[in-house]
Write a structure and sequence with these properties.
Rossmann fold; alpha/beta; 5-stranded parallel β-sheet; single chain; 376 residues; 13 helices
């Protein structure tokens, strides 16, 4: 069989190939964490397309090599290894959950490849690992922001009901650790499996504890929505706090606006874009991402896609400033990032701080009338 080349193909063969910068991603686009991973993957694909349309990075095209790990840490490790050894990426973005992030970072650290996680647990970046960074606030910071608000409201006795998944268990431990700093006592401490369909037994126990003044639910996925509905069903009239792990319109939809009314949680500027002051340093980037994502997907923007947006922004900004796609140069440039406004906060990294955010990046939010509002 003969092969024929068109004139266009012959010309293409004669031209040098355009330089490429390969970025890897392992995202939980399907599975139990799909409500997190789906907007993350859509965001990365959208931003790569947009960046390349504008000329790429220093004239080089960005190629995204993405895998769907289904929320499975073992698959995430396999895909991270494939990204490094077979696809030869210069950096990795992903780790939708704490479990998948821990698997990916083990591979990235061994290979000395920059990795930006999209998960919440503090263990991802504490202690600091040379090549691992992350964009979401830590679970420890979420506890601090929540307890700060409780302290302002005069609460000292709190009941906690936590998911036993990696995120829920980690935040439960962090909240117990920092509670004394705010004069708060955890007087009830219940847990539930993420697959549980009813948590009324645990909530009834919490309600029965003498002196309990508020309830806190560390967790993500469908569990917190069920807990929220159960609180409503039991007519528990106590202030109720959730974590940043459910900071999206999807949580309100799953829990129901009536049940979610009054729920408070620490969230990002992205959820209250229309309420930001004109001089807020995050407003331009929040407005731009919100407009682009909603036009592209036809769905509301959310916190989790914002984590991916910020990871891509940090990574591409570092590559551009480094003038190199060498992994070590990218890592050094990320550590030198100062005052970079994203949807989650304004990032300033150092060799000792691979999160780059402080508590001011969190906004305390309350659900009113099915909408996110700022707590003043």
């Amino acid at each position: 069989m003969k092969t024929f080349l068109t004139t266009t193909a012959l010309i293409a063969l004669a031209l040098p190939a355009m330089a490429e910068i390969k970025l890897g991603a392992s995202i939980s686009a399907t599975g139990p964490a799909a409500f997190l991973g789906d907007p993350e993957l859509k965001t990365l694909e959208m931003l790569v397309e947009d960046l390349n349309a504008k000329g790429g990075i220093n004239g080089e095209e960005v190629v995204l090599v993405a895998y769907d790990d289904n929320g499975d840490p073992n698959k995430a490790r396999t895909f991270a290894t494939r990204l490094v050894e077979d696809d030869e990426v210069v950096a990795i973005i992903g780790g939708t959950t704490t479990g998948t992030s821990m698997s990916i970072l083990a591979v990235a650290e061994d290979a000395e490849i920059p990795f930006i996680s999209l998960a919440g647990a503090i263990d991802i970046i504490d202690p600091v690992k040379p090549f691992t960074f992350k964009t979401p606030h830590t679970d420890r910071m979420a506890c601090q922001k929540i307890f700060e608000d409780m302290q302002n409201r005069g609460f000292t006795k709190v009941g906690m009901i936590s998911g036993t998944d990696g995120f829920g268990a980690s935040m439960q431990a962090q909240c117990k650790s920092v509670a004394p700093d705010y004069g708060i006592e955890i007087v009830a401490d219940e847990t539930y499996d993420p697959k549980d369909a009813d948590m009324t037994a645990q909530l009834t126990k919490i309600r029965g504890v003498e002196g309990v003044q508020a309830i806190l639910n560390p967790g993500f996925g469908q569990g917190p929505s069920i807990v929220t509905r159960n609180v409503k069903q039991l007519a528990i009239d106590l202030p109720f706090y959730q974590s940043h792990g459910v900071a999206s319109d999807g949580f309100i939809d799953l829990a129901g606006a009536d049940a979610a009314e009054g729920v408070r949680l620490p969230g990002t500027a992205l959820l209250v874009a229309d309420l930001l002051a004109e001089d807020d340093p995050q407003k331009p980037v929040v407005d731009a991402y919100k407009a682009m994502f909603e036009a592209k997907t036809g769905t509301p923007v959310g916190t989790f896609g914002g984590y991916a947006h910020d990871a891509f922004l940090i990574m591409t900004d570092a590559i551009a400033r480094a003038g190199s796609a060498e992994p070590a140069a990218i890592r050094d440039a990320i550590e030198a990032t100062t005052g970079l406004a994203g949807t989650t906060g304004v990032y300033t990294f150092t060799a000792e701080d691979h999160l780059g955010l402080d508590l001011t990046a969190f906004r305390m939010l309350e659900i009113k009338g099915g909408k996110w509002t700022l707590v003043q």
